[in-house]
Amino acid sequence: MKIPTDHQKYGIVIDSGSSGSRIQIYRWEDQEYTKKSNKDKKVLSSPPKIVQEKGWTYKITPGISTFGEPNKVKKIWTDHYSELMKFAEGIIPAEKHNETPVYVLATAGMRLLPPKKQKKILKETCSSLQKNTKFYIPNCKDFVQIIDGETEGIYGWLGLNYLMGQFNEYDASREEHESIGFMDMGGASTQIAFVPSSLEEIKKHDDDLSKVTLRNVNGQTQKWSVFVETWLGFGANEARRRYLKQLINLSLTNPILGTEINDPCLPKGASIKYDNDGTTYDIQGLGNYEMCIKEIYPLLMKNVPCKDTPCLFNGIHGPKLNFDKDKFVGISEYWYTANDVFQTGGEYNFQIFNERVKEYCESDWSLILSNSEKGQYSNLDPEKFLKDACFKASWVINVLHDGFELPRLGLDVSEDTNASQEKEMEKLKNTHVPFKSANSVNGDELSWTLGKILLFASSQITGDSKKDMNIGIYPSEISGKEFVPGGIIGSSAHDSDDDDDDHGVGFGHIIYSIIFIFLLFFFIYHFGRSHLNKYVFKSRRFRIPKPFKQQVSKAVSKIPGLNKYFKNIIPYNSLSEQDTMNIHLEEGIMPSASTSPTQSPNLAGLRTRSNINLADPSDLSDDYGNPSRNFGFLNKPFVVPKKTPSGFYYSNNNSRDSLHRVSSNSSMSNKLRNVD
């Protein structure tokens, strides 16, 4: 049944990555209409049905990070986003524009820019979209932003499980719900997101888990505990870069080698030029697969200690992956390498993949070029992709099996006879396969942008209880990150002109505040100096740290009209502190009159306290940086502990340690490769 236009909702997510921006357009049905027109309990107990028609995605290059220069940032609308929004306007009905949200979410390319450039690009992007379109962008903070790797990973997990139907017919009375783990390997980083397989693991690692909430059409809230982690520098391209640097560093121990280096992960007869610290190295291929696997292993950093067990790699602690029960899907490089070069995309079998990678790595480069000309490798550019294919496939094997400890299914297949091999392979077909690579599910593109729009669509549904949690992502307790809302919460909308307030207090406000404080000190000093002496006794325990006094003196000396008065304040403070010392002497805190004037008081205690850094460093010199014999801790009072009602004393210090669709063999998939 066709949905009436009045009850159709649209949403736009623009994935602004390092190589370009891809717009994804989605549609779903108004939930009130669904409730009235559909009484199917399966539909009502599931999230909104998100639809993406064929051709509702479009990509342009280059990435928005290239607009960071002052003379380019103003062109970000005309040279970039105007084309994407024109594409969207041709699909979404004009009467729906003002209620259609546009999310511009930047990833790896923007994360690498300095904060000032990031802010300029985001501000110009938001203001130009608000000015030149009628789409729904009520504020810049939530709708135009840079997302971190963990958020991107959870969006991917949401998109995958939605397409696999794991959120359908959610039963809140059950404590355990099955889901599918998400793995993603880009050019710069690799990610994983999954729900631990048992309640015991969830409770054990509760502090490490993010809480993700969705809402069904009937208003019921789904709650999921998801572990998500990102390894920056462990993507395929960055791992390759680290590997080459590792080879170069090893070669430096033997000067005889010079600038010619052998690479076991490069096919025999292939060579590349690599620049490192101003020196160009000639990398020659050895084509030794076994050696390649061993040379790559140290890049996993398995030797880095973890805070707790189990440990994955590079010191990252997380719940144990139960591959006997769980299923995982890998996208991006997991799919491109397996499918485009080795034709093993889909269900992963270690034996088949391992044999094809070994054969490729140990092939002569001339044979690989010949096969490429025959179209054997999905028409990939030999120089850009095929030379690195052996390394990338070997890196995938290392990450899967040594990093995540995925079992090597198919490794122990018998080799006695062809008959026994066929029997064993038939057995494997009926075996639980814990890992698959994919770029789509049932014809729908597998993209993390779907996860974002799913959160927005479900956030528009009214909950069946006032106590329901807001829809979105509640990061783990140990992450210290803020809640990521699925949509607008309350009346948080504001104009883009207020965007500066989202990033901290303006510099001008800080200057005015400092000047006001200086004027206040000046007034107190100038008009109240004659009254200070009688308060010296009461204020003797208060000491202004020397670094603060020096900075204040330096800053105020530059303010016209104040410098001639303020220059005497620091010396006067020194005299006041000397008066305080005299008062201490009178009270008997210092040595008695019988003690020699040159004798240091309580010398043993002084050494001990100094050794454990209780002496204030500022007290070891005077206000002008000259060495002093006055040790500040003698001037500090003992802290009187507070008494609890039960009679115990306690301290105040309670610190704790705390895709436009792409066919599997289409050359179009090349355009999607190596996106961070």
TrEMBL record:
**TM annotation in the entry:** 510-528
GO molecular function, a single term: ribonucleoside triphosphate phosphatase activity
**For this chain's UniProt record, which GO biological process terms are given?**
CTP metabolic process; UDP catabolic process
Highest rank taxon of the organism = Eukaryota
Tell me the segments the record calls region Disordered.
651-676
Q: Which residues form the active site?
A: E152
Provide this UniProt record's keywords sorted from A to Z.
Answer: ATP-binding, Hydrolase, Membrane, Nucleotide-binding, Transmembrane, Transmembrane helix
Q: Which family does it belong to?
A: Belongs to the GDA1/CD39 NTPase family.
Q: What is this protein called?
A: Golgi apyrase
Q: Which organism is it from?
A: Hyphopichia burtonii NRRL Y-1933
